[in-house]
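Components:
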Amino acid sequence: MSKSNDDKPISAKKFMKEFRRYQKGSVTRRHFLGVTGLGTAMAVMGTAVPSLWSGKAHASGELGDRLIFSTWPNYHDQANLDAFTAKTGVNIQVNAFGSNEEMLAKLQAGGTGWDVFVPTNYTISNYVALDLIQELDLSRIPYYDAAANNPKFAGPATVNGKVYCVPKNWGTTGFVVNTKKIKSGPKSWKDFFDVTMGAGSGHTIVHDYQLTTIGAALCALGYSFNSIDAKELGEAEALLIKSKPHLFAITSDYQPGMRSGDAWMSICWNGDATQLHNDLPEMHYVIATDGGEIWTDFYAIPKDAPHLNAAYAFINFMQDPNVQASEAAVHGYAPTDSRAIALQPSSLASDPILHPAENLMNGLEFGAAQTLTDPIRAEVMARFKSA
Amino acid sequence: MREDSKPSHWLTVALLAPTSMWFLFMLILPLIVILVFSFGERSAFGGYSGGFTLEQYANLPSRLKAFQNTMIIAPAGTLLSLVVAYPLAYFLAVRVSRQYKLILLVLVIVPFWTSLLVRTYAWIFILGGRGIPTLLEFIGIEGVRLINTQGAVLVGIVYGYLPLMVFPIFVSLEKLDKTLLEASSDLGGSPFKTFMQITLPLSMPGIATGSMLVFILLMGEFLIPAFLGGGKVFFIGNALVDLFLQSRNWPFGAAVSVTLVVIMLITVSLYMRMIMRSKTGRDESLM
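Structure:
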């Protein structure tokens, strides 16, 4: 196509003429799409409407043309997802979720169409018990190296001797404070709720996620983050309901609120704190002195994943230590893979938010499997939200 | 005659079949499933397990606040939409000259071309700290909080549902016989009296339809309160989303749904009766 043709869009008359030629078979489909600009339009729409995009055009056709991926907010470098698409022709549709319970609910209801999703440590054994995820064929994930992963983090991937997922990142759940607005320097979950109901009234966010929100209230009361004791949960519910009028929002997507200045404090995962801190130095991350969560997220494949080949290709791509390191540089969560940690710049490897000192993490607990399915915790959270 | 009616009978059946099937499979059967579920129990991992218990219905008071929010904000939102929509519909139907009417009508529909989700997301930024509150700070009004309040939800509702209210009212005002207005003023009726005795009663069908459309949809609304209420202004729709998609208590969710359907049936039938009564009353007085 000549340069001058490129500059202006095709006229209606010319379009119809080309269309007739294409219908009669005088020109090829490629010529028709090229000359009318439809090819470009389709390429642009390809990401949004992958089914329009013919997968056959790609050499690696056996991967299919799409992958449905369910993960958490602010948890990937878009450049890496694009690189995977460029390499394989597989378009990735990303769904972001704010809690493991939401993911479980979708999988339990069935027909999600998900190929890969990101569950947290405490959910794996439940998913296996419910027969919702499949055992992984590690030979199809050559980049994964079990020996490079700290068993402290990778352990929950193995249930009854079978490996069901590979680790993504690990992190902590604490809270982030806008120090320009809150100067009292809260250190614990008890402080967190005191400030919420005091100087910071109207400016606190808690997650729309039973594990962390109820966990925070439990820690503030001096109980275990993982408690499923009815009496302790009752007290936690009372504390949450009492603080509710003072909250800014109940949401797991707390970055917009923190960035706009509406919210001054939020329950926060450490990588999101890094993202906030990098842009706004007044954002400080706090690992509470009275407890909290330490966690590992994994890549897993649902039992009925429709694009299994693409799922394995994607997980393998994301396990590449180089990809892991570049992901971490963007989302601020530490890899569990020592090969990826070795590739990180020293500033990140020694970053106190990414890699907190061991003594700070002493009080932290991994989420316990029973919290996912405990009916009282589920109902406490639901009642708190509708109170 | 009889032979003539036979093919038309089959035609009627054939034409009604798709809707009947739709009603049966997409409305009646799901409603029965929900009714059955509402007497069941939550299984250990969440979801539904069979049984017969009234436990779910006994637990309804725990969602009282959500019912209250819905029962207050849905009618308030309907009324507010009406107050905003009526002058607009009147202007479009009565005042605007023919040549601009179509363009202005299209402008009312244009927002519908974009998903409500995206448009509601935009309101988060308008009402959020960097939006209107920052503008207010320039004129010295500080510390205003708009987002995540009932007011924000109401704004979102009026914005989202306005066209549904404008069009029915526009249609009934469009049909209005203008000579009636002239007759009224010839007989010495003030503009206010003319409006109250002629324009308003004749546009009642539009008002009734529009209010119904908006009210029914609002009773099941969850997106606007979720986005502009920040999880703090909780509708019964949000409670349902929560029960099915987070706490996985299907039987209780079913019981809440059944209750919502019952409340809707009662409210809507009362409303219909009220409308019907005022209509027959007027017809008689006209006679």
